[in-house]
Amino acid sequence: MSRRHLLCLTGLGLLACSLPGFATSVTADHGWIRLLPGNLPAAGYVQLHNEGDQAAMLTSASSPRYGRVMLHLSSNRNGSASMQMVDQLAIHARSQLRLAPGSFHLMLSQATAPAPKVGDKVMISLHFDGGQSLQVPFVVRPAYAEDDGSTAPTGSASSSTAASP
């Protein structure tokens, strides 16, 4: 390879590394799904870690096991519980964001056949601004579960671009 080609490739590599969203430092662990009976929507919870120097913005999620995955926030004000869809969630630089019961979560509806059952592992793709995706395994837990059961596998970021849900 000529010196000219080598310099050109090095320059392209540096340019790609400087583009926003080229590499993400977001990881996830303790992913779990609270499965409700019948056709009721399920809820997904996970711990997200951002070791990077810039905030990462979670913009959507998808799964081959659910026709619809939405970002939601549950709240309880003056004894009145409510839930609302949110457009995106920020994971601040060098910080964590916990999706947990009574707070931010993934609302999972329209389960595909065969419907997930307790003990299954369901892959959920978390999509970030800049085209980044994070493939995360979630363990399906029963309706009465309060946490992941400390057996949930972890996920790590990939730089592949995934289609929006």
What does this structure look like?
This protein is mostly beta strands and 165 residues long. The protein has one domain (23-158): PCu(A)C copper chaperone (Immunoglobulin-like, Sandwich), CATH 2.60.40. The protein is built from 1 helix and 11 strands. It has one helix at 3-18, and strands at 26-34, 42-50, 56-62, 66-77, 80-85, 89-91, 95-99, 104-111, 121-128, 133-141, 157-158. Strands 1, 2, 3, 4, 5, 6, 7, 8, 9, 10 and 11 form an 11-stranded mixed sheet that branches. The longest helix has 16 residues, at 3-18. The protein is globular, with a radius of gyration of 18 Å. The N and C termini lie far apart (42 Å). It comes from Frateuria aurantia (strain ATCC 33424 / DSM 6220 / KCTC 2777 / LMG 1558 / NBRC 3245 / NCIMB 13370). Keywords: Signal. This is Copper(I)-binding protein.
Describe this structure in a few short sentences.
This protein is 10% helix and 47% strand. With 165 residues, the chain is mainly beta.
Reconstruct the topology from this structure:
Blueprint: H1 3-18, E1 26-34, E2 42-50, E3 56-62, E4 66-77, E5 80-85, E6 89-91, E7 95-99, E8 104-111, E9 121-128, E10 133-141, E11 157-158
Parallel strand pairs: 1-10
Antiparallel strand pairs: 1-2, 2-7, 2-8, 3-6, 3-9, 4-5, 4-8, 9-10, 10-11
